[in-house]
């Protein structure tokens, strides 16, 4: 299948400042990557111990989900101190060592910045509670009086993203706003002190050698909270055109213009990628060079394994990237959604706004419309491999989520009392939440936690994890891990500029495109084998069938 010798890709950190444009970025969810102190929770030294694995995989950068001090009420997205490391995960010295090791292996580092909210353990919030109403400390957050005769009703009927009310009452009777969990009070971005402190944080990590930032809910920071506050129904009905009181406001870009000046004061400039759930027409505002510089494109997270959807998504997002002058980002999985091997192993269905099928226990899934299919794991993996080669052949950067290189599935076997995700608790179990994609990785077939650590794993690893272990896939040329390694290696060798030209394959179930440098990508979304264009088959997501591309497969061709 693979007919050219692997190139040795010498990644050089002195590369051009636009290294990020076509980078492969690997998301590490630190609590669930590797545990060296045996407490069941992944840690920084665990990641350092696996730097050779990341280098062999061939990624250009890693994005670290939050590793800051946190009660882990929302998996670390509840930050108690933005300029330190959670003692459960390590120390600042450990981070320095990790950054140094990654850089020594030619891998850049992106860290997660969570600016919309802090943890309720943050010194600022504790100060706000102690200082009382009308204080400067409360002005850093969004405190309001309640409604009703005695103020015992929340200021509005707003609902939080995780379910339940978006306001919480404190001991002296005031209420604070939280878009997410009650442990995540929203900051007041109209307060210059808040703005100044985040600039300090960006400099703190940039000075330590971090190469870029992923900005959590980048579209939510600024708010217009002038009275009277609108109701939930009004909020939902208002257009999100830059003037909405809560989401995607034009004035958020004043914040990012200030950040951009900080990023550009470094050499090379620090990069940033926006997690902005906004109307597609507004994505370029975040991706512009004057703003954050790049924005996530989540369209594939919500798409079926479907040729028309994939083709449209590529065309739309390349056009959006051209509009902003940035490159787009391809994401098949992350820590917030059901892993794509599993999504693709379920029947296509209306999936609801977040694209998340709901898992039930015993590997039974609930799709909207009341279907409860059983997962076709093998088919899901086959499609996942095809989708990965499709995405890795595209111009733009690709964000991989830890474990997808193993073909890993979502874990359904988590009992209610083992769940950690606030979405599970705040929806009273209606939404099973995101724990199933956050289960610690299997590194070896055996051992107390499949090589994750000596002391078990903070979320239960099912027995079937053994079959996906790194150790097992390592030397197997047919494994998904080998496919990813080979794909990343070839991508580095083949990738030049960001042009893409569609190829008419003459049938609806095949999507094909040509890249510069003689590189062609063909994906067969159908079930029957299809002939391949002339050329040398460099890589294929499943074995060819009599020289033809098998169903639900992708091949990379060197054009004749
Ligand atoms: C988006 C993050 O990806 C998610 O994990 C988190 O729960 C919310 N933002 C709140 O920070």
Describe this structure in words.
- This protein is α/β, with parallel strands linked by helices.
- The protein has three domains: 19-114 and 192-487, TIM Barrel, CATH 3.20.20; 123-177, Oligo-1,6-glucosidase, domain 2 (Alpha-Beta Complex), CATH 3.90.400.10; 498-558, Immunoglobulin-like, CATH 2.60.40.
- The chain has 14 helices and 17 strands.
- A hairpin with a 6-residue loop joins strand 13 and strand 14 (510-515).
- The longest helix has 18 residues, at 307-324.
- The two termini are 16 Å apart.
- 48% of the residues are buried.
- Residues 1-10 and 350-354 have low confidence and may be disordered.
Present the secondary structure layout.
Layout: E1 24-28, H1 44-49, H2 51-57, E2 61-64, H3 92-104, E3 108-113, H4 123-131, E4 143-144, E5 167-169, E6 175-177, H5 192-207, E7 212-215, H6 232-237, H7 252-264, E8 271-274, H8 283-287, H9 307-324, E9 329-331, H10 340-343, E10 358-359, E11 365-366, H11 377-392, E12 397-401, H12 422-426, H13 470-474, H14 480-494, E13 501-503, E14 510-515, E15 519-524, E16 535-540, E17 553-559
Parallel strand pairs: 1-2, 1-12, 2-3, 3-7, 7-8, 9-12
Antiparallel strand pairs: 4-6, 5-6, 10-11, 13-14, 14-15, 15-17, 16-17
Helix pairs in contact: 5-7, 11-14
The structure holds 1-deoxynojirimycin.
């Amino acid at each position: 299948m693979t007919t050219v010798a692997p190139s040795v890709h010498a990644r050089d950190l002195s590369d051009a400042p636009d290294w990020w444009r076509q980078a492969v970025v690997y998301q590490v969810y630190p609590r669930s990557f590797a545990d060296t102190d045996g407490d069941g929770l992944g840690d920084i030294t665990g990641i350092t111990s696996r730097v050779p694995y990341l280098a062999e995989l061939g990624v250009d950068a890693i994005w670290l989900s939050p590793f800051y001090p946190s009660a882990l009420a929302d998996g670390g997205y509840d930050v108690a101190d933005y300029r330190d490391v959670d003692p459960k995960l390590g120390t600042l010295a450990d981070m320095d060592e990790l950054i140094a090791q990654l850089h020594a292996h030619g891998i850049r580092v992106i860290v997660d910045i969570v600016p919309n909210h802090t943890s309720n353990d943050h010194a600022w919030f504790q100060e706000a509670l102690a200082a009382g109403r009308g204080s400067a400390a409360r002005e850093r957050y969004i405190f309001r009086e309640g409604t009703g005769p005695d103020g015992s009703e929340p200021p509005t009927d707003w609902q939080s993203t995780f379910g339940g009310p978006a306001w919480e009452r404190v001991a002296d009777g005031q209420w604070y706003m939280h878009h997410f969990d009650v442990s995540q009070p929203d900051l007041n971005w109209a307060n210059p002190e808040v703005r100044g402190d985040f600039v300090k944080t960006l400099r703190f990590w940039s000075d330590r050698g971090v190469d870029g930032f992923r900005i959590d809910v980048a579209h939510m920071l600024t708010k217009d909270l002038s009275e009277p506050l609108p109701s939930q129904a009004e909020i939902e009905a208002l257009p999100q055109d830059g003037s909405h009181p809560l989401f995607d406001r034009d004035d958020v870009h004043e914040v990012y213009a200030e950040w951009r000046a900080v990023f550009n004061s470094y050499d090379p400039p620090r990069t940033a990628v926006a997690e902005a759930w906004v109307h597609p027409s507004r994505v370029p505002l975040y991706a512009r060079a004057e703003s954050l510089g790049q924005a996530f494109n989540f369209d594939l997270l919500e798409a079926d394994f479907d040729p028309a959807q994939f083709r449209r998504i590529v065309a739309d997002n390349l056009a959006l990237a051209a509009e902003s002058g940035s490159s787009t980002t391809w994401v098949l999985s992350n820590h917030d959604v059901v892993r794509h091997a599993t999504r693709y192993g379920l029947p296509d269905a209306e999936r609801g706004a977040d694209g998340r099928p709901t898992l039930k226990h015993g590997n039974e899934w609930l799709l909207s419309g009341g279907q409860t299919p059983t997962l076709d794991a093998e088919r899901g993996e086959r499609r996942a491999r095809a989708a990965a080669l499709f995405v890795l052949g595209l111009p733009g950067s690709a964000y991989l989520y830890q474990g997808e290189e193993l073909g890993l599935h979502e874990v359904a076997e988590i009992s209610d009392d083992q769940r950690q995700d606030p979405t599970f608790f705040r929806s009273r179990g209606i939404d099973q939440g995101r724990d199933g994609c956050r289960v610690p990785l299997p590194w070896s077939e055996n051992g107390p936690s499949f090589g994750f650590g000596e002391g078990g794993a903070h979320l239960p690893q099912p027995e079937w994890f053994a079959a996906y272990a790194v150790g097992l896939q390592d030397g197997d040329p047919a494994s998904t891990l080998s496919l990813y390694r080979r794909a990343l290696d070839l991508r580095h060798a083949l990738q030049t500029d960001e042009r893409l030209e569609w190829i008419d394959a003459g049938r609806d179930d095949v999507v094909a495109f040509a890249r510069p440098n003689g590189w062609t990508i063909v994906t067969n979304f159908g079930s029957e084998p299809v002939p391949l264009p002339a050329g040398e088959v460099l890589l294929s997501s499943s074995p060819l069938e009599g020289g033809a591309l098998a169903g639900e497969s992708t091949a990379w061709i060197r054009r004749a």
